[in-house]
Amino acid sequence: MNVFIFNNLNLDNGIFISDKTLKKININELSTTENTLFVVPNELLQFIEFKHDLKNNENIHASILNSLSTLNNDAEDLIVLNSSNKYNFFISSKSYQETIKRLFSHFNTRISITSDLLFFKEVIKQNCSYQNNVYLIESEEAVKLSTKSFNLLDDAMKIKSLTDLDLKKIKDTNYTIYQLNTFNLYSIFNFKNSLKPALAVLFLIFTFYVTALLNINSNYSQINKMSTTLESIYSSIYPAENITDIHQQIDIKLNNLNNAEANDLSKTINLLKNLSESINIVEAEYSQGDLQIKCLFKNDAEESIFVNQQNRLNFNFTIVNSKDTQIGKITTFSYEL
After folding, report:
1. Where are the domains of the chain?
2. Residues in CB range of 235: below 8 A, 6 or more apart
3. Is the Cα dihedral 273, 278, 283, 284 positive or negative?
4. pLDDT tens digits, residue range 267-313?
């Protein structure tokens, strides 16, 4: 199993260990999280061992929170996360969890995560130090300390100093992990993965088909309920037509509506296929012959290139709005089908 160890609380850089090789990289350089364990600082994902004989998960979590006497975080903001070991848990705050979820959101899969304290406990199995931290594994309760805090202790403990070279030699083990599910609609429309365009198109086909079918059935039901005034209603909508068979004429109009919806659906699918090859689509919505698409751009330049490209292809579109966010620039386009 590959291992990515974050080296700061910003969760941007770290070391990536794979097949006995090690390199320092930015998290954005990873193209996949498959078969990879992510080691997060214990400050963000606090490891705790809790022996119990409780059956109810809510009671277990409540007992853990009650047992934590002094915490820097507000108690109401804390959450307990289960792991693959029924006696090992992680304590985190809602804000930290949101940060971690945003970090991995574009991978659209389950992410295997552990804390650095638990990682070194399972891999090294003895007191050790790495970078500017000390991990006291052999004590009754595993603890992570800064080197500065550890030096204030009077106890003469034996500490094994770890280097990156040592980490290259770690043996794969049955890690205790917390699994984070990052699947969301944004991930569906992020087309970096070759399977995602197919998923998105199938999702849209189903959505648009159901919407169109409901609209047609709704229209038909409303007309039939007014059986006593069908002809007057029809005449007011289509004054130039002679009524010969009101039910047959209504069926014809409904069939035309169905064909129009199908034509718009076909245009929508083709448009999304083309757009997905060059941009990240985060949201798509169809309404009354128009398709609104929210796109994610890295910067203004990328957005400008895309707009110029659409103009050259003679697409009939307008820019509805645009805003800068933490993940990039999100712009909404409205395409006339």
Report:
1. 2-183, 196-336
2. 241, 243
3. negative
4. 776 777 778 777 888 787 776 677 888 888 888 888 988 998 888 88
Give the other-Cβ count within 10 Å of 216's Cβ.
Answer: 15
- Site of tokens 């059956």: 55
Q: Are strands 290-297 and 317-325 parallel, antiparallel or unpaired?
A: unpaired
Alpha carbon of residue 29 to chain centroid: 17
Which residue reads 């038909």 in tokens?
220
**Helices (H), ranges, 54-195:** 57-67, 94-104, 116-123, 147-150, 164-168, 185-188
Whole-angstrom distance, CA of residue 326 vs CA of residue 272: 25
State the pTM of this model: 0.56
* Cα-only R_g, the chain: 29
Which residue has 């698409």 as its token pair?
Answer: 293
Q: How far apart are CA 101 and CA 95, in angstroms?
A: 10
Give the model's pLDDT for residue 47. Answer: 94
Q: Phi and psi (nearest 5°) for 6?
A: -70, 140
